[in-house]
Batch of 4 targets.
Target 1
Amino acid sequence: MDLGTFLGLASGISLVLGAIFMGGSLREFIDIPSLMIVVGGTIASTCVAFPVREVMQAFSAMLQIFSSRKVSDAEVVEMMVRIAEISRREGLLALENIQTDNAILKKACQLIADNADPALIRETVRIEISSMKRRHAVGEAVFKSLAGFAPSFGMIGTLIGLVQMLGRLEDPKSVGPAMAVAIITTFYGSLLSTLFFLPVAGKLRARTISEAHQLDIIFEGAKCILQNNNPRLVYEKLSSFIAPKERRNVRR
């Protein structure tokens, strides 16, 4: 899991739980009907707003955020410099045998090995960037919708609780507990929206910007390798894509 994501979620949950335990018992904040209204209603409305396939893709993208390590721009620059070294030492055809988990980098190596025109590489990368942005935009939109629906269903649950409470006003002792249960749903909706759904949408947006930037690095590196097979020149050009303090981490 990305360290920032883990620390953010862990600290947020810890602070909320700490505040709860300092003021009372966690049992007071557990209400199954309220959870059913908020979680079930939020997911149901999202499935109405989006195709189920896109909702599943959004949750799959969320799991990738939590489980996969983010590749830095410096690592991408380093990979392109290594590819330049291989092509200079063994020839362009040797790039066909490059083993990498990055499908875009693999495709770029294949295009370089085929001595493709830089315009073709640019168009290929442009299509990949457009496709990636669309996929991420759908995931971001799904989680923004979840973040909007959750507080709304929290308020619906509160209204349901208030109606039930007002129907039992003849028993004054039941008003306090009933009011607490009514407000719990608003708490659930706000917590899910603020601590989970909105941060995930923001994370997807940040990943989109980062991955688009790295695709630009791959394109410029591929073009530079085709024009001049000098690893040093490849590094000098691609190092402009990363911050000066990160350049020292690139092995060359």
Target 2
Amino acid sequence: MRDIGIFDGAGEILALDGISAGYRRRPVVHDVRLGPLPPASITALVGPNGAGKSTLLKGLAGAMPVRGRAMLGSRDLIAMTPRDRARLVAHMPQALPDRVALTVLDAVIGALRAGPAGDPPPGTPKGDAERAVAVLDRLGITALALQPLDTLSGGQRQMAALAQALVRDPRVLLLDEPTSALDLRHQYRVMATVRDLARERALQVIVVLHDLDLACRWAHRIAVLGQGRLHAFGTPAEAVTPRILHDVWGVAARVDARDDGRVRVEVEGLA
């Protein structure tokens, strides 16, 4: 059996219905329908460059114009005010800004206190620091608390960015290529941490990944995007097929589904 069991406790189901996102005069994502996504699950968005994966995340996070419905239980995230949506949804972009002199601890405290405009401060300075340290401790990076962000390695920066996304205790976690430019060790560490946090907090995680093997290893479900449209959605074995690889990526490939549920892709040439 695959080591990514789904949470059995309380939590709200997420479903995307007719989501379109992009620029006002140039839509990028068209009529995407995903779900239902149960709590404590990981959904990987995969597809070629320019497929609309990051645009979809930005739309769900409220960082880009979006239409449609994103139902978290009975609540439509798209219809919410930016303030209310930001209380439920956290977005981790592809990379932290360069040349940021803040320490990791200060950056996480800043993410906690930089809530939607008009929100009261979440707590006292001492309480905010304790909450930030608790998140760093959960991620195993307390030793980095006083290091400046611009001195961190790639893997350390990704973990610091994850701490910033988690510190406000979201219900939906949107991760844009959290393993990009990481070595195998740090890829495993980031994805294992995301899996464990999804279980512990009954999170819905939607993650953009370029590596199909990584997506098939860690995701409960995979959504394949191509040219802004959804081409497949389901378990790794259902969504990643030779036909989909041919139609979306333009490659001829063999797909091997193992008894433990894992899927391996071997590209044999261009279609």
Target 3
Amino acid sequence: MNNIWRNFIRPIFRGLYRNTQGLLGFLYDYRRFVLYSGWKENLYDSQIRNYNLAMAYHGLEKSLSYKKRNKKSGWSNARRVYERLKKAHETGHFGYHDIASSQVLSKFLTLPENIENKQSKEMLDFINDLGLVSDEDHGSINLSFEEITLGKLNKPEMFFLSRYSLREYSSNGKVDLRTVERVVRMAMKTPSVCNRQEWHVYHTDDRSIMDTTLSYQNGNKPFGNKIPNLFIVSVDLKAFFSGFEHYQHWIDGGLFSMSLIYALHSLGIASCPLNWSQTPKADKAIRKAIEIQDNHTIIMMIGFGYPDGKNKVCSSTRRPLEEVLTNLQNR
């Protein structure tokens, strides 16, 4: 009887339990997508409009960035930007992407092949009346070979292979806020879908807040009380409009999280990524305990701090390259 239970009945119950948990998680994520994503495209909502504008003007940026661009391309995105800027004008509130999009649209409309177009004159008059000014250079820029390879490392393997997940940190102090801001600023160069930049980072070095937050995360119990600083990485669901983008926030959030970890490493700050593949119950509970916006999906947490004089880490070896890399060739 014990063998029947162990070999047949228990695996069936375990499989049913795991699949039920997966289904509940999928339904929870779907409910959050319905409630908080931008699928309704309410362009009077400043956040939704700005994410929507990022998609449109990034299309113009790409059109402007080609050495030999199709002179007839870009007009559909130009009209999208124009219509959304009119919505912004109606609200009287202009966000970052509103302002950036007006600069990119202006560059597009003043191209020699576009300047005399009747549409261009109408749109340019509107943009000039808005009077939006940006100190940044939007659209496209020219870079030399030396400029585009400026970040090349002399010993890249040394940088990548010297990063370990550290769970015990120096007692010399927390990472100061200025350095935290520097890390996030560097990580913001991470690519995102249509350049929407929909990440949001919650940071704390408050012990009570960290203890509360980490109590909902599995796997930190032996060292969580030793973490000096904590990131909670999230992504704004308002940035996503199409049903086929239902996984995109996990992709963009994962990319951004790795950038944060490498930005920390570049400054000699150690870190440990903390998984947030949690149950709906835990996700709801943490939102009641700390102030996480409803439309922000938690991707993961990252504990970080300065390494000690002597440190001990897991020797987590890597699989053979041939198990990871497949070179595709035409037969």
Target 4
Amino acid sequence: METREVRRILVTAIGSFAAPAVIRELKKEGCYVVGTDVNPAELLSESTEVQAFYQLPRCDAREEYLQKLGAVIQREQIDGILPLTDAELDVLGADTEQLGGALLLAPSGELLQRARHKKQSKEAAEAVFRRAGNERFVTIPTFRMPHRTEEEREQWLLRHMPLILKPDNGRSSEGVFRIGNREALTRALLELRMLGRAEGYLAQPFISGRVVCVDTIRDSAGHTLALAREEYIRTPRGAGLSVQVFRDSELEAICGALAAELGVIGCVNFEFIKDAGGKYHFLECNPRFSGGIGFSERAGLPAVRLHLGAWRGESIPEDITERITPGWQVKKYIEVVTKE
């Protein structure tokens, strides 16, 4: 990749979990940081940390969102855009020509679709695990909701309980149903029928264990670096609050190979369920900063700096791993005055 200067950066969704660490580390790198969000500045602590803030419409109002975002890009002379949510990444990654010449610092086009699509990312993981020949890493059997009558569909799902129902293009644990009994299944199917979404859902057997998130960085030369954390307390939307950051050379190598298989550049996040026997069941790829990126930063992995460097065409320094300190971490909330 040709070396490119990226200094004036727009960060979307600054009310998200990843925003404090991302903004802090970008400013340490000497970047001019512009923040956007659907909420007004007074509702966002990070609005006090950016050099400029703009409230934008929801990205599902696509045309209005892109028009107003384009005006901000032009006014602030933005040369790099960092989307922090899947919803905005899906919109921005679909057509980067609408970004006014600013570089999308995230996957786009077919690369984004392959990483975000559950079936395609699962196929990529299967290929990597097969080449590695390591039985610690497996994918979860996944079935598309059968195209049958409602009664036949319910009977099919009952035979496979306990299970998880999830949308094929899900975001941040949205629309996920955990089914342990017939009553829960009936409620889930009723809700999906009312929303007209049953045909877009996948079914997976429920795997007991804790979620392990692996922040993984890949530069344009193919060098990779990864750091894992096991999450003990999570929000209902899947953001870690209490975690243990740890090193596992086999897991780190697998995630590096996954990043290469998907062809991503910069920092992405892979999620697994680690069962009682220590086996890792692949869940998904989040082709953006994870909500818990601050945990990796605190442990000594400069993920934001390395992500920016990867998109600038720089290589990952060889001595980074020497600075990483595993351990237990928790997220802490504080009060911030945003307006008087």
